[in-house]
Design a protein that fits this description.
heterodimer; A: alpha+beta; Alpha-Beta Plaits; 2 domains; two-stranded antiparallel sheet; B: about 425 residues; FAD/NAD(P)-binding domain; Enolase-like, domain 1; five-stranded parallel sheet
Chain lengths: ~150, ~425
Amino acid sequence: MKRVYPNKDFCIGCHICELACLTAHSKSKDLILAYTVERGESGLSSCKHVHEGGPTCVALSCRHCDEPSCVAACISGALQKDPETGRTVYDREKCVGCWSCLMACPFGAIARHPLEAKIVKCDLCHDRPGGPACVAACPNKALKQEER
Amino acid sequence: MNYVIIGNGVSSIGAIEGIRRHDKDGKIVVIGAEDTAAYGRPLISYLLAGKIGPERLALRGEDYYARNGVELKLGTTATGVDTAKKTVTTDKGETVKYDRLLIATGGIPFVPPIPGVQGEDIYSFTTLAHANTLIELSSKIKRAVVIGGGLIGLKAAESLHDRGVSVTIVELAPRILSGGFDEKAGRLAANRLKNVGIEVNCGVTAKEIQRGKDGHVKGVLLTDGRFLECDVVVVAIGVVPHSAIAKEAGIKVERGIMVDAKLMTSAKDVYAAGDVAQAMDQLTGEHRVVPIWPNAYNQGYACGRNMAGAKQPYMGGLPMNSISFYGLPTISVGVVNPPDGDKNYEVHALLDEEKETYRKLVFRDEKLVGYVLVGDIDKGGMYTAFIKFEMPLAGEAKDKLINAGPEVFLWPAELFDETWNPEPAKAAR
């Protein structure tokens, strides 16, 4: 399957991927409304996070592992592997907010939703024409979606 | 290939998914004693608390078994295994032939021999049937005593409290959650429970369950002489491996069913996974029964793969628990209570009682081997990485982990690249 691969040598830490992710997962699909209104009102959050360590930075999110620790740990069946697409899919309705996935995922790719007992995790923008918004927005081509 | 799985819990789901990674065609038969499709067993506390309805219990979708070519024999108990003839017999009088067998029968509640424990009004809390019984009872009873301050006991207490029952917990150890937590984390959790009105008594246990002339429970006499009036008693001391069927078949059983590096038992082509299995622990290299959810899935998955011929070793389990008490989230992973005075361990603990946050890091041989988080749990998985991948943490890296928290740039460069940005395969370049 095609996954998103971050290159820390190209990442300039501009956080544009985070904003693109936020916008792609917003109701309004408008950056300004997503950032100024929806973030506060509905707890809209980015699935992508720029990690910074001194001069180095890199934008990370769910790797959609072949054998994900989060699926093994999920007590509600909210996280499952889609055998067709290979994505690690999240069913928000089933999630009870036990945080087992957050504990089990060694890649730190799962965050608590700021307002609800739900998680925030990359869905590879599966219903977005043109693929993941973070990849499309990266100005330095530090994010690539490809088959490896 | 005929696969037979005894047990229909999360190990069984793991096994189905492991088998289907390698074998799309083999026939899978699942024999489950309970009469429902596999459900999220820990969800029974959410059900009892009224936080979710029964429609949210199923672990997989309705078409899951059909889509995976699984024949489900529910409400059916496996009664015997013949490892020579390679058959399983059931209480329905069937004989099912297998080429590869998985025993994933889980655990059964341990009920200690307290005087008065046999009879009416005594309940366990490990199955959906138990939860439904307690839901029905909760409107008729006023007071309950929960014996056992571990995860099951505390969740039973919290859920019954949510149903309006007055609950008292008794725990023999000096603190609740003695298995996966230390004293400070246990106290934060206990305070949360006390604040909502659940009574927590540590360092005592039930000496006798007293009954009236009608046979019903009147209350529990404690070892310190106190008497707690109650209508029902929930016994939640823990679970023991449900290994009888393996023992009777002549399969090697110690505390649980012994398995080798590929999770095969002493009988050829018979595997074991989950709460019934005594499998390898990653950190100690020893075989232990660690009845936790992620291990059960992972072992089931590894069994499934190997039953289908993958011949991959099981990487070993890591004890881990994530559980919240009235909104106070807690995570505990790996070795959290190193032996007293053992110089091989180094512990860094930070407690803020005002904010109800706690972080404890346990190091051994310049590696992180365990941690506890209470309140602020957001970096949980990032700490788990250092334990799971056994990353070396000497000098500055360790100081950074302790002082600034876990960060992906503390990873060895090779592991970082392999994980996040592997070289494209030649064909794809």
